[in-house]
Design a protein that fits this description.
Layout: H1 2-12, H2 30-33, H3 37-52, H4 60-80, E1 86-93, E2 99-105, H5 111-117, H6 123-126
Antiparallel strand pairs: 1-2
Length: about 130
């Protein structure tokens, strides 16, 4: 399956790197390029497990219902749930000369609001 996907995307995304990861194994390139698994697991914990707990789902009917829930959750969380975006990060030193990381965030807005404010969509799509 991976070979087919790699071949399919090779023409669409030139220069993209193909990588693999396994559960409980640190990604080989994580120090250099970042490890996105931690973000996925964080979302799983806060979204999916908050609704379903940690029980395993074993039947096809359960999988179908879960996929319906995912579709609804995806729309809600990706378009209508307000998020903060970091706009600045700087290092300052306290009285003991220890480095302190300070982050500055913009106001919380929904991703849909950010998209419409960016004015990258035409008027027909925006409505």
């Amino acid at each position: 399956m991976n070979a087919h996907l790699q071949h399919f995307f090779a023409d669409k995304f030139r220069g993209a790197k193909f990588s693999r990861s396994r559960s409980w194994q640190k990604h080989v390139l994580s120090e250099v390029e970042g490890n996105d698994n931690r973000f996925v697991e964080q979302k799983n914990s806060t979204l999916v497990r908050a609704y379903l707990g940690r029980e395993s789902l074993t039947t096809q009917e359960q999988a179908d219902l879960l996929n319906e829930l995912y579709d609804l959750m995806r729309v809600y969380y990706n378009f209508y749930q307000p998020v903060l975006r970091q706009i600045e990060r700087s290092v300052h030193y306290n009285a003991q000369h220890a480095p302190v990381l300070r982050r500055k965030h913009d106001t919380a807005r929904t991703p849909l609001k950010r998209l419409t404010e960016a004015e990258v969509l035409d008027q027909k799509t925006r409505v």
